[in-house]
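User: Need the bound-state model for zinc ion:
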Amino acid sequence: MTAPAPQQDWPPLSPIRTGIRGRCPRCGKGRLFNGFLTLRDRCDHCGLDYGYADPADGPAFFVICFGCVPAVIFTLWIQLRYDPPAWVHLVTSLPFLLLTCILPLRPLKGWLVCSQYFFNSGEGRLARDPEDRR
Ligand SMILES: [Zn+2]
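Assistant: Bound-state model below.
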C-alpha cells in the first residue's frame, strides 16, 4: 500500500466511468475492489475510506431486472420455438444466464458505490435543530 496522497482538491469524477472500471470515486486511480465483489477498506492511492459504501442489494436488483428476465425470456423462447432436448439448454441457456447475471455485478456495484460518494448519499438522520441540516 502506498502512502496517501497529500490533501488536495479532487475534481468530480463521473460515477459511471470510475464505477464500471472499479476505481476510486475520489481520485479515479485507486482500486475499489479486493477480489470480485469485496470492497477494500480504503483507496490505495488517495486513502479515501470506503466505510460509507453500502450498495446493499442494489446490484442484485439491477441484475434481476436487466439480466435474469432477458435470460428467462431467451430460455422460454428456445423451449417454445424449438422444443429441444435438455442438453441444449445446458449449452445455450445456462451460459447466457450466467453471463447476464454474474458479469454485470461488479460494474454495477462499483457504479452504485461511486454514485454514493458523488451524490454524498447516506442513511437519513433526524435534524436536532434547524442549523443541523445538510
Ligand atoms: Zn482514491
